């Protein structure tokens, strides 16, 4: 019985540590990170180009950041959040969605599909910021889990107002939209 209790305590602590493995703190700036291999996808007409991206460029607008592994399962996890953002029709002068795709965390052999999907996403949502991270720079710097998705809400100064790894509940999606709306109105 003592062994079972000890094992349960150890497993419980490991699970709780894993649940909060990231180093992102409320009311703090995100750790600085630069993605220079690939990076931010830009458009010149219908032509796609890449430029180095740094998290130091995040302040200035309210943002929802979606960091996702380059896997369809990770992308689908928080699709409800993305649909809610689209439905909210936020003022583009004060708000921007930033999607960071960890192409290094993709199923073997799917890298070209991940890149193509990221470029297509940028073309469909030209006002959004899309970053392709080929070296897991963001995941490693922010201490994020593999094969997963994280949603982060930043105020216009770049401070974290909400963060959650994994699938958001319907109430959490509503909370992010409500908080973003209030931050944009400031």
TrEMBL record:
<dbReference type="Pfam" id="PF09695">
    <property type="entry name" value="YtfJ_HI0045"/>
</dbReference>
<feature type="signal peptide">
    <location>
        <begin position="1"/>
        <end position="21"/>
    </location>
</feature>
<dbReference type="InterPro" id="IPR006513">
    <property type="entry name" value="YtfJ_HI0045"/>
</dbReference>
<keyword id="KW-0732">Signal</keyword>
<protein>
    <recommendedName>
        <fullName>YtfJ family protein</fullName>
    </recommendedName>
</protein>
């Amino acid at each position: 019985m003592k062994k079972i209790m000890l094992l349960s305590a150890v497993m419980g602590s490991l699970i709780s540590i894993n649940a909060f493995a990231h180093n992102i703190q409320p009311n703090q700036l995100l750790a600085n990170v630069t993605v220079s291999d690939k990076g931010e996808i830009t458009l010149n007409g219908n032509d796609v180009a890449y430029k180095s991206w740094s998290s130091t460029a995040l302040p200035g607008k309210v943002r929802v950041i979606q960091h996702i592994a380059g896997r369809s399962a990770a992308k689908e996890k928080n699709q409800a959040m993305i649909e809610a953002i689209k439905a909210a029709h936020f003022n583009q002068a004060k708000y921007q969605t930033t999607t960071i795709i960890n192409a290094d965390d993709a199923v073997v052999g799917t890298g070209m599909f991940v890149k193509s999907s990221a470029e297509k996403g940028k073309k469909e949502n030209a006002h959004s910021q899309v970053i392709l991270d080929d070296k897991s720079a963001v995941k490693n710097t922010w201490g994020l889990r593999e094969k997963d998705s994280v949603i982060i809400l930043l105020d216009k100064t770049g401070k974290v107002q909400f963060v959650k790894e994994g699938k958001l509940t319907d109430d959490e999606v509503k909370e992010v939209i409500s908080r973003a709306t209030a931050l944009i109105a400031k």
